[in-house]
């Protein structure tokens, strides 16, 4: 009897594991992991490839970043509208194929350029090489737009349908997707970086192209499996294509009725004829001007719809968090490099940042169960602001290069008006800096990155930069919990027929603020001004959370301060309140 019970327990455990591995939820996770891994490898590698191709200059990388940000900013609403107008499977499959095919073509072009660059420079006075650069940036931008469409349709639509009406399940799935993003953000660049370091750029291009080809086939199959296992994905409420087909069907029925009533009295025939003609005029083909102005109307209608959403302030709050230098991007890591932090220390800090980001996803699911969704965003915002207070303190601590007597525009004016010769950058310096920090750095015009780091570490106290990164790392808990809160608020409160366009506009807002933060750095690029950038970043984050507090107060009133109520009725009433406000 004991053996039989043990066998039943084992079979039950094995059966539950098997059913989970075959479930639509797990298949969605697996497909997202493959897609995100390929995206992170490509985004990391393409910047390095462009730097190496253009003589260790950041010009092509800067142009690529500007094109990508500008494209999503202008086309975000149009991409979202396209997602709304078409069936879910068609959108997902088309985005998948365009994205991976574009990366494969880019990889092949880059391999050709790396192998035959010396010959291409001599052909047509170098214009053929310039054409190759333009093709790479253009096709890579198309891949990014397709990736945006894929992200909207999977993370803002499919995941809601797979979760069903269970909001707790939706929160868990959102948190799991963010954990996958956090892990791939660290592991994927490390993997492709090792391949490029111990191999060559040509091998790196070939590996990424081959990965995307294999991943495209597997992801295509996984999407089809998820679609089959979730019948609700086949139905899209308020789909405009279905409305158009229904109108055309009504016209056909009226015409058939008219033909059947030809032998009846003239008044009936005349009435039916007038109705049919009126419907035919309504359904006439749009003219050339309509086709030309349609993208502009879609752009306008998307932004108007975004402004009219009940979660508009919450979405704006999330976008304002992108206007910051307090993240592990090339700007902050480059500043840390000038303050004497080594590459190994930066790698350790990035790993710690990923861990705290994952802790933020865990905190989100726990806080949501205890306090409700809206209060979770309020608590997460307060946690982020308290952590960023360390960054504010770091600006005024020993070792901070803040110098208000130095003009933020001194570096720009010296370059454009004094026309001083630019220091020569050794290729080894650029390579070493990229392999450790993610951006090339030149400190005091030296030719040895290692000696610069040692010299700075001896002369510059590390109290300021230590407090800065302590605040940045600690703030990731509140940041990712807040990000998940706003994401789920948009998922729950935006009607199904507008999910795509609202998500597209939200992406555009995020890119707009991100673009502004790069412009801010361009205007004040010297280390002496970085403290001012830190203060401006904290100000924008605070403004974002003020917007969210305004939204939360409108949704819950003074009940927002009753945090972590142990009674589940409070959470249920909050959900009902949120539903009523969205209606």
Automatic annotation (TrEMBL):
It comes from the Eukaryota. The keyword Cell membrane applies. GO terms for cellular component: basolateral plasma membrane. It is a multi-pass membrane protein. InterPro entries: Ferroportin-1, MFS_trans_sf. CDD domains: MFS_SLC40A1_like (cd17480). The chain crosses the membrane at residues 58-83, 95-116, 122-146, 304-325, 345-366, 378-397, 460-479, 500-524, 530-549. Pfam families: FPN1. GO terms for molecular function: iron ion transmembrane transporter activity; metal ion binding; peptide hormone binding. The keyword Protein biosynthesis does not apply. It is found in: Basolateral cell membrane; Membrane. Keywords: Cell membrane, Ion transport, Iron, Membrane, Metal-binding, Transmembrane, Transmembrane helix, Transport. May be involved in iron transport and iron homeostasis. Belongs to the ferroportin (FP) (TC 2.A.100) family. SLC40A subfamily. This is Solute carrier family 40 member. It comes from Microcaecilia unicolor. The lineage of its organism: Eukaryota, Metazoa, Chordata, Craniata, Vertebrata.
């Amino acid at each position: 009897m004991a053996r039989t019970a043990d066998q039943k327990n084992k079979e039950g455990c094995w059966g539950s594991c098997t059913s989970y591995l075959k479930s639509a939820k797990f298949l969605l996770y697996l497909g997202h992991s493959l897609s995100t891994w390929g995206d992170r490898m490509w985004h990391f590698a393409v910047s390095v490839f462009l730097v190496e191709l253009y003589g260790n200059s950041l010009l092509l990388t800067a142009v690529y970043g500007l094109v990508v940000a500008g494209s999503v900013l202008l086309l975000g609403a149009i991409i979202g509208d396209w997602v709304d107008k078409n069936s879910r499977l068609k959108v997902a499959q088309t985005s998948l194929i365009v994205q991976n095919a574009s990366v494969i073509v880019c990889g092949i072009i880059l391999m050709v350029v790396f192998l035959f660059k010396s010959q291409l420079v001599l052909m047509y006075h170098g214009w053929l090489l310039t054409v190759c650069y333009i093709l790479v940036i253009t096709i890579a931008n198309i891949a990014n737009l397709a990736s945006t469409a894929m992200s909207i349709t999977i993370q803002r639509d499919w995941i809601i349908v797979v979760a069903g009406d269970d909001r707790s399940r939706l929160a868990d799935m959102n948190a799991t997707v963010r954990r996958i993003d956090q892990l791939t953000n660290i592991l994927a660049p490390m993997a492709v970086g090792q391949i490029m370091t111990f191999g060559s750029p040509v091998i790196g291009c070939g590996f990424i192209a081959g990965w995307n080809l294999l991943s495209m086939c597997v992801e295509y199959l996984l999407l089809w499996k998820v679609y089959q296992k979730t019948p609700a994905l086949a139905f899209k409420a308020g789909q405009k294509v279905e409305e158009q087909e229904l109108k055309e069907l009504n016209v056909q029925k009226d015409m058939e009725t008219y033909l059947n009533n030809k032998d009846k009295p003239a008044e009936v025939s005349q009435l039916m004829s007038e109705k049919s003609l009126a419907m035919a005029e309504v359904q006439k083909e749009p003219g050339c001007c309509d086709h030309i102005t349609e993208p502009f109307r879609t752009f306008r209608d998307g932004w108007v719809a975004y402004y009219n959403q009940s979660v508009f302030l919450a979405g704006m709050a999330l976008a304002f968090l992108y206007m910051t230098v307090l993240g592990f991007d090339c700007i902050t890591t480059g500043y840390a490099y000038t303050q004497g932090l080594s590459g190994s220390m930066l790698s350790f800090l990035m790993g710690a940042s990923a861990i705290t980001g994952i802790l933020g996803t865990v905190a989100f699911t726990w806080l949501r169960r205890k306090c409700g969704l809206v209060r979770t965003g309020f608590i997460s915002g307060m946690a982020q602001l308290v952590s960023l207070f360390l960054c504010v303190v770091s600006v005024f601590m020993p070792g901070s290069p803040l110098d208000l007597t130095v003009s933020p525009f001194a570096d720009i004016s010296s370059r454009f008006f004094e026309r001083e010769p630019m220091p020569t950058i050794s290729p080894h310096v650029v390579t070493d800096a990229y392999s450790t920090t993610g951006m090339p750095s030149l400190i005091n015009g030296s030719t040895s990155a290692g000696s610069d780091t040692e010299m700075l570490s001896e002369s510059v106290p590390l109290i300021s930069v230590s407090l800065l990164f302590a605040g940045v790392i600690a703030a990731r808990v509140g940041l990712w919990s807040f990000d998940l809160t706003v994401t789920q608020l948009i998922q729950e409160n935006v009607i199904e027929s507008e999910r795509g366009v609202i998500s597209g506009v939200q992406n555009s807002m995020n890119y707009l603020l991100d673009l502004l933060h790069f412009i801010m750095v361009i205007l004040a690029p010297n280390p002496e001004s970085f403290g001012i950038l830190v203060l401006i970043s904290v100000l924008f984050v605070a403004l974002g959370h003020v917007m969210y507090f305004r939204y939360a107060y409108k949704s819950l009133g003074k009940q927002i301060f009753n945090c972590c109520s142990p009674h589940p009725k409070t959470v249920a009433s909050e959900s009902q309140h949120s539903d009523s406000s969205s209606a």
